[in-house]
């Protein structure tokens, strides 16, 4: 299990580095995005991954890694938006945004470790394409919850779904040997 923790940290370090660089370039312009807009961005990335996995011919020479990184970072932005709410103007500097990023990842990694313990690392036997499908399923659930104005009767909330998508994306990147 310790190798999972180390591999997880290696993947997140790469994602975090990109997040910080984009924050430096663009600021926190993403803070104006409403949750459904972030969900749609994640959905586009997941659909692109599925398309890359299914198509033999590619018009652009890229693989899925960049899209999984995008899913991770957009999900973290969504978790931050859930906590802070949407604003009319960017309001976070790099330092504050990075602290929030780290806080959301710590909670998400703790969730992964608890589930990983209970499920015995079953994800290691899964195909990356199955993880992609699970992400798409979670996205459809989130869209439904958003359409229901955030209300659920017996299901976990939007935040847990974003956390699961982060963890599935990290697992996919680990399976793809991206962290090395």
Shape: globular
- What structural class do the secondary elements suggest? mainly alpha
Uncertain segments: none
Mean pLDDT: 92
Characterize the biggest β-sheet: none
Q: What is the radius of gyration?
A: 16 Å
* Count of DSSP H/I helices: 6
Would you list the SSEs in sequence order as H and E? Answer: HHHHHH
State the end-to-end CA separation: 17 Å
Quick one: how many beta strands? 0
In percent terms, what proportion of residues is strand?
A: under 5%
Question: Helix content range of the residues, please?
Answer: over 70%
What does this structure look like?
With 180 residues, the chain is mainly alpha-helical. Helix content is 72%, strand content 0%. The longest helix is centred in the middle third of the chain and has 26 residues. The model has no long low-confidence stretch (mean pLDDT 92).
Helix-strand blueprint:
Elements: H1 2-26, H2 35-54, H3 65-84, H4 94-119, H5 128-147, H6 158-175
Helix pairs in contact: 1-3, 1-4, 1-6, 2-3, 2-5, 3-4, 3-6, 4-6, 5-6
What's a quick, concise take on this entry?
By secondary structure, this protein is mainly alpha-helical. Helix content is 72%, strand content 0%. The longest helix has 26 residues, at 94-119.
Can you give keywords for this protein?
about 180 residues
